Amino acid sequence: MVTYLQLATEQCYRDETPVPALITLTGRLKTRYPGMLEIGMRGDNEHLDGYHRSRRWVQQSQFCTNRFYSVSRTPGDQSGGNDNWYTAIDIGAPQQLLFQMCKRLDAGIRSGRFEKITEWYGNFGDDLRVDGYDNISNHLAISDSSHLTHLHMSFDRGRANENHDDVFLLLTEGDDVSADEVWDYTISSPSLAFSGPAEEWLKYTVQTDRKMDEALAAIAALDAKISAGATVGLTEDQVRAIVRQEIDRATVAA
């Protein structure tokens, strides 16, 4: 498996950035369902192609496994938007809410009103088969079994920064799951042994869950160690935090 340290050696990886309009959308969803959603946009080190990666990364990275997927089928995917944007969203939710979101999303896409979404994967809850739809070719699609427990949406790279109030309403209107429902969805982070330069720690410490002043203080302290040529040995809990922050880099803290 490609490591995060290997990915970080490439400028096209370090320059990947979220789409402003998708940050707004994910923030609104987290506010609508406080404490109930796990949302990620940037791909982890197992995402080596597709919309969870930037177009530039797909075209330039030595680690990319498919240079066609997500960058060639529409004019927007080919050249629209910002080359460094990653344009997919994964949403983990309690089962009944997940099933409802998937059904509403599928109906909306098939209506022809959401051409800016190129594909979706998830689960309707009636079997153990991943449900999904390729909205470019207009046919059913299927993906790996992880999509039984989360909803994936890919946005056309040229339209990802449009206003997505319509997507928010599509996912939330008519829901019958209370925002007070107990959270019952979990995500497992890889357990890794990691020890490396403080510089590498900084690359992955994207602060989404701490106040900014605390983040800046932590970065300043590590930066001082870098200047002194020191290394930082990380605990397993810290590594889990790194992986989580990397996956959820673009999300808005709930």
The N- and C-terminal alpha carbons lie at a distance of: 31 Å
The tally of domains stands at: 2
Order of helices and strands: HHEHEHHEEHEEEEHEHHEH
Strand order of the largest sheet: 2-4-8-5-6-7
Q: Structural class, from helix and strand content? A: alpha+beta
The low-confidence runs, each spanning 5 or more residues with pLDDT under 50, are 176-213, 249-254
By DSSP, the count of extended strands is 10
Name the beta content range.
Answer: 5-15%
Helix content: 25-40%
Shape: globular
Describe this structure in words.
This protein is of the alpha+beta class. The chain folds into 2 domains: about 170 residues, no CATH class; about 40 residues. Helices cover about 35% and strands about 15% of the residues. It is built from 10 helices and 10 strands. Strands 2-4-8-5-6-7 form a 6-stranded antiparallel sheet, with helices on one face. Strands 1-3 form a two-stranded parallel ribbon. Strands 9-10 form a two-stranded antiparallel sheet. β5 and β6 form a beta hairpin. α3 runs parallel beside α7, α6 packs across α7 and α8 packs antiparallel against α9. The longest helix has 16 residues. It is globular, with a radius of gyration of 19 Å. It starts with a helix and ends in a 7-residue tail after the last helix. The C terminus is likely disordered.
